[in-house]
């Protein structure tokens, strides 16, 4: 079991570094949840298994950011919440398209890339875009 909250998310980032999107599934009720927590938010029991997600989603909500939070962060960029077919929502960046091309309900697929700190993370791009 994770000794602290940061360790709870280690499997997520380790998989992302390998280009895999994994999400926790409760060992008791078999429902997915996100973000990772000690107790399942559905049945409040401990124990989960990291499972590879399908990698598809739809845009649930989004906003375009035009003011950089730090030096060397290119703008504009799109921050979105996407809804995965596994039934969870995840905050991410919508990439490979302009902010004007993003819409609620738009099909997207996972695409891994480095964030401005150089850490590899799952982003989401329009599902009809090429890799
Ligand atoms: Zn559960």
Instruction: List the helices and strands in order.
Output: HHEEEEEEE
In what order do the strands lie side by side in the largest sheet?
5-4-3-6-7
- Category by helix and strand content: mainly beta
Strand content: 35-45%
Largest sheet: 5 strands, antiparallel
Instruction: State Rg.
Output: 15 Å
Ranges where pLDDT stays below 50 over 5 or more residues in a row are none
CA-CA gap between termini: 36 Å
* Count of DSSP strands: 7
Form type = globular
- Ligands, deduplicated: zinc ion
Mean pLDDT: 92
Count of helical segments? 2
Helix content: under 10%
Description:
The protein has 2 helices and 7 strands; from the N terminus they run ααβββββββ. It is mostly beta strands. The chain is globular and about 40 Å long. The protein starts with a helix and ends in a 5-residue tail after the last strand. The site of zinc ion has 8 residues, from loops.
Descriptive tags:
131 residues; mainly beta; 37% strand; globular
Brief digest:
The protein has two helices and seven strands, in the order ααβββββββ. 9% of the residues lie in helices and 37% in strands.
Annotate the secondary structure layout.
Elements: H1 5-8, H2 10-17, E1 22-26, E2 48-52, E3 56-65, E4 77-83, E5 89-94, E6 107-114, E7 120-126
Antiparallel strand pairs: 1-2, 3-4, 3-6, 4-5, 6-7
């Amino acid at each position: 079991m994770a000794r602290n909250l940061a360790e709870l998310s280690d499997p997520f980032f380790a998989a992302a570094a390998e280009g895999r999107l994994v999400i926790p599934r409760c060992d008791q009720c078999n429902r997915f949840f996100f973000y990772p927590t000690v107790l399942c938010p559905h049945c409040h029991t401990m124990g989960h298994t990291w499972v590879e997600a399908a990698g598809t989603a739809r845009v649930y909500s989004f906003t375009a950011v035009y003011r950089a939070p730090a030096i060397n962060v290119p703008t504009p960029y799109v921050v979105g919440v996407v809804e995965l077919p596994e039934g969870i929502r995840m905050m991410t960046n919508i990439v490979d398209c302009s902010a004007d091309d993003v819409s609620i309900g738009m099909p997207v697929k996972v695409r891994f890339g480095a964030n401005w700190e150089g850490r590899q993370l799952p982003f989401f791009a329009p599902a009809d875009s090429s890799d």
